[in-house]
Design brief:
Layout: H1 6-39, H2 45-64, H3 77-94, E1 104-105, E2 112-113, H4 115-121, H5 139-164, H6 169-180, H7 183-187, H8 197-213, H9 218-231, H10 233-253, H11 259-279, H12 281-292, H13 308-313, H14 332-340, H15 349-365, H16 369-375, H17 389-405, H18 410-426, H19 435-457, H20 463-491, H21 505-517, E3 524-526, H22 536-540, E4 547-548, H23 554-562, E5 567-568, E6 573-574, H24 580-585, E7 588-593, E8 601-604, E9 611-614, H25 647-655, E10 660-661, E11 666-667, H26 677-680, E12 684-685, E13 692-693, E14 697-699, E15 702-705, E16 714-719, E17 725-728, E18 734-739, E19 742-747, E20 758-762, E21 768-774, E22 779-782, E23 786-789, H27 791-803, E24 808-812, E25 815-824, E26 827-833, E27 838-842, E28 851-853, E29 856-860, E30 865-872, H28 877-903
Parallel strand pairs: 3-7
Antiparallel strand pairs: 1-2, 4-6, 5-6, 7-8, 9-26, 10-23, 11-16, 12-13, 14-15, 15-22, 16-21, 17-20, 17-23, 18-19, 18-21, 24-25, 25-30, 26-29, 27-30, 28-29
Protein name: YfhO family protein
Region (Disordered): 670-689
Transmembrane segments: 47-69, 110-130, 142-164, 233-253, 265-288, 325-344, 353-376, 388-406, 413-432, 438-456, 463-485, 877-900
Length: 916
Amino acid sequence: MKNASPESGIYSLKTQVIREARRHVNVTINMLTAPAQRLAAPRFAPLFAALLAMGAYCLGMTMLGSYPFGTRSRAVNDLGNQFVPFHAHLWDLLHGNTTGDLLLNWNSGYGVPFLADFLTYLMNPFSWLVGLFPRDLAELPVFLVTLGCIGLGSALMTVFLGRVHPGAPWPRALLAVGYGTCAWVVSDGTADPMWMWGLVSLPLTGIAADWCLRRRHWVAGTLLVGVSWAGNFYTAAMAGLAMALVLAVRLLLAAEVPVRDRLRSLVRAATMALTGVLLAAPAITVTLKASKASRPAPEAVYRGRPPTLDFVAELLPGGRGSVPAPHLFIGMLGLLLVAAFPFVRAVPVRTRVAWYGLAACVAVSFVWKPTLLLWHGLAVPNGSPYRASFVLSALLVIIAWLALAHRPRPRELAAGAVLVALIAALCGGRSVVGPATWILVAGCGPVVLAALLALARHRARSTVGTLAAAALTCAVFFGSAYAAFSVTAVRDQLAWWEPKITLDDRTIAVHREIKAREDWPRSRTDPGPHEFANNDPLLLGGEGGSYYSSYVPEKTARTLREMGGGWYIHGRHLRSVEDPVSRAVLAVSSFRTGPQAGPVDVGRAAAAPLLTVRPGLSAEDLDQPRRGAAGRGMDVRADPRVGGGSVFARQERLLGARVYEVPTLRLAGGGSGGGGPAAGSHAAAAPESGAVRPVPRLVDGEWRLPATRRGGAALFTVRCTPGSDVFWYAPWYHGQVRAAGLTSPGFGIRETTANPVKGLGVAPPDGRLTVAFSNPRAQRVPEHPLGCLSRAKLAAAVADLRKQGPVRLSSSGHGLSAELPAHRTGTAVLAVPAVPGWGCRVDGGAARAPHSFGGLIAVPLGAGATRLDCSYRPPGLLPGLAASGAALGVLAAVAGTCGVRRRRGGAHRPPFPPES
């Protein structure tokens, strides 16, 4: 046996040391990455994607200092104005802490339908978590709605990508994180949690469509479609259309599958979709009826497609531009793979062309008005016209997965990197490309490229492969977090995104004070008119008039405006009434006063009961609906006295007594509204400025006020009873009204913003008032904009109405029951807007639709009655339930048939090819 040389011994020792060092390095790396590797296994990949996406979003919000990780409020735009108040109301419903139920909301609009709001804003299953938290923390479950949808959407996308093409679960999970934190989510979806269900419904619908391809799980797929549409039908329709296009592409590419089988898959998908939609039919029929009966949305004007480079620049992560365009980015990993996809030779050319063509067609459909309308329910959205952007982001993620699943070569990845660099160079000057974009492209991009190149050359379980996988995971996680942070920071700088005051110490104190003062149903406690959020009554409690929803009934809005209430957004945001007569008519006996920052102060006033019996009213006295802007269901019969067609006369009709003095406006310096010399003149001296300018003219029952210069005003004189309260009403007036040393601003814009009846102080001892109108542009105001109220007459009128109240009045969730004095005749008037869906029974008789009196519910009692019962049922509910019942019957029949066939050993169907 030969002796070993010293050199060979040293070499062996070096080799042993190196091997031992490698073993320790591998053990250390495995210890660090073992949890992620276990989570990324096929069984746990969806959970891995969910945790990674939710963690990235939470990290981004922590960097921003946003609630619940900091003091920065999330209650921006509709999240503060609608979703937090609606979730607070849902908490009240779940805990029996409110007067209404799912069918009717007694808190808002002085009694409005609620089921359509629930089905639209609160059907996301994550919304129901609000019941597990204290009411004062309702903002936290609203945040969890967003977070839960990000996690569930990412998990389901991981599953769906595996159905589109088989491949390693860990890369699918990383790409799904890009989908869960895409630009649409962090820019649009998080501010409107109801839309976030679209992030879930898209992969749900895609999985159902994949089962159609493989001709299995028809019942389960139908249930998935039904859940998608029930959670939010608006985004589910977008997701369904997108997945229909994906299904068409997959069928087109399946050339080896006989045409007959492809047609059968198509029919199967159509029947599955139809039955699934019918399962959620009430969400469609109820909201459709409510939408048709609601105030029309402000007409949105589509201003045309964005510049091409602004559109393309949206692919780059981390920015939010000033040019309206679809928000698209899916992170650097997804962008690099989408750019590399055309160069991946392992993917057949026809497949590359088909998927790229689909993405291009969808992109073009977003900026061509006819197809834009198709994506958005045949109406241009008010606000962002690209609410369907998430479907294009999903298509980009699918394309990225197809590229990665075919293991792109280094040259192909390099070609994709060059294309990304070219896009960044061309779009560098666009508003969406900011510092955050360059940080992600120049910092995160090379890391992603290097990791993909390393994985292309080494096995995933090797040392280099493990390090590359860890680097890629970190790049996706921190890149997604930074993109969420940067986009939200830019968005929150916009004035429109100023947070609303929702649940803080102040509003919590107001809520407790309002609850302590409630006297429902004997009278209402109104938390208005000052606003914390646009839905103060849902947030603060009480039974107020403020109400902001897409489903504000047209009749409610018109009734309250004709009574002198105000509105915003074309009547889709109502304000509480502010004058004493309207409050008395609507049974408002207590109301919050004072500014937001001041002490909690609840005022009191004498008010009529919620239900009164008017002996003098007959069927002829009730409203006769007429066409035209003046009517809309209101009685517009002429009143012979001065101001007989004014808001003050309409209030008196509802009150049943004369309480106002409506003076005639006379131009200061001579002339009257009847067309005296000044009224016919075109120029006069302006006392404040000394300039000569046109003077007001009375034309067609309206005063036409010219624009006034700075410091100038149109001056009128009026006479009222000394000591009476002076009010003015000009719903569309924008300017200032001054009298008796007081200034009252008006912010009216015709049909968009309506002023309520506002106070101008007290008439002086001589009863003579000079009223000045200062307006920056020409205006029109009613012929009789002023009314002088006698408080004594109002008190007497309210006392008379209280004598005409019921013996006993009780309220259920969606109804009212009254015990009347024996054999009471006349007409019962409920201080509730008369909207379709109400039915009333007199002494247990047949339910009949009530009449209307000044827009309020009116029920003729006939020869005499002792009991009145009224209840509300949403229009469209019964047809929707019938359709859902039919769909459930079909589902049960199919499930039974399939069960029998399985027991008999039905024929095996070959699965759809895994690759398409």
